[in-house]
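FYI - complex with iron/sulfur cluster, inputs then prediction.
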Amino acid sequence: MTETWAEPAPTATALLLLGRGSDADSEKGVDCPGELPPASDPDLVARAKAAKEKLGSSVFILGHHYQRDEVIQFADVTGDSFKLAQQAAARPDAEHIVFCGVHFMAESADILTKEHQKVVLPDLAAGCSMADMAALTQVEKAWEQFTDLGIAGDVVPVTYMNSTADIKGFVGRHGGVVCTSSNAKRALEWAYARGEKVFFLPDQHLGRNTVVREMGFSLDDCVLYNPHKPNGGLSEQELRDAKIILWRGHCSVHGRFTLDCVNEVRERVPGVNVLVHPECKHEVVEAADYVGSTEYIIKVLDEAPAGSSWAVGTELNLVRRVAAAHPDKNITFLDRTVCYCSTMNRIDLPHLVWALEELVAGRVPNQITVDGDTAHYARVALDQMLALP
Ligand code: SF4
């Protein structure tokens, strides 16, 4: 018998994100000039509709898969970060791109769109903890170390799309490439055709999972570069012997799934298929039945036979939406507690209404811009990704 969707147990953070609680500190640093409508305003949906209508084709709203339903209902297109940036670039008539996602995604959209297009992030506090784990100064310091060791010439940098424009620019400057969770293997093959080693930023798990699961490397071929330790916490010999130098970054959402979650769901749900994102830890990915990007996860669940059972290890907003779209399938969340991306959830309906109404008033709120030099080299690394065989 098919079970109905069971909401995971709420955590304190999740309650805050759902608006049931308050934490003044959590809002520090949020820059929202002007008047943010209260979340209790019953006219929010009507206000968003009216503002969107007034703006017409001059605005294009992008919604990442991990966004809340209240926001996603106004998106002109939904997708993962790269698909959304491409969609923005394909709409040069839209003067304003409102990006319902996180900061690095809005930066990529700014890099890929035309000069006259302005990219707006409704809440500047919507960052990404993974992207923030690799600062340009830290990465440049690591590269100096490789240069001093005489290995920099053998190293090709590869960065995940989930990185700041600064890091993409660094990678472009040093002959590397950007990758997504869908094309990481192809990007790494391209890199190994050009150098003996790869410097993989900023997600250690995507790098490790790709080379070990899909390219026949062993765990011993990988070393972890910790920017908070002298020399990355690695000896000269370890750096010389490594085939891949993984930056010590991770996604705080996917990092929550554990081997215990997998074992527990297998006991609880007979015949369950475990489907996870490659940002999960290596042992979780090894124990799963299916592994792939957000778009892959959606496709697998869309195509799964009625009555089949799935435990999904990715962001909760996405899992809930796919479960609601397929009531004939038993789709459950891999963790028993709520697991939203806290920064993605910063973009709520009040912020979207505020951003749209500002645009109607002729003001451009929270514009995200990338400086010309960084944008140029980041584009080089992005174009290299698009040219991958
Ligand atoms: S889900 Fe993870 S990688 Fe994606 S925006 Fe949130 S913290 Fe960053």
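Confidence is low (pLDDT under 50) at residues 18-29. Residues 131-251 form a domain with the Rossmann fold fold (CATH 3.40.50.10800).
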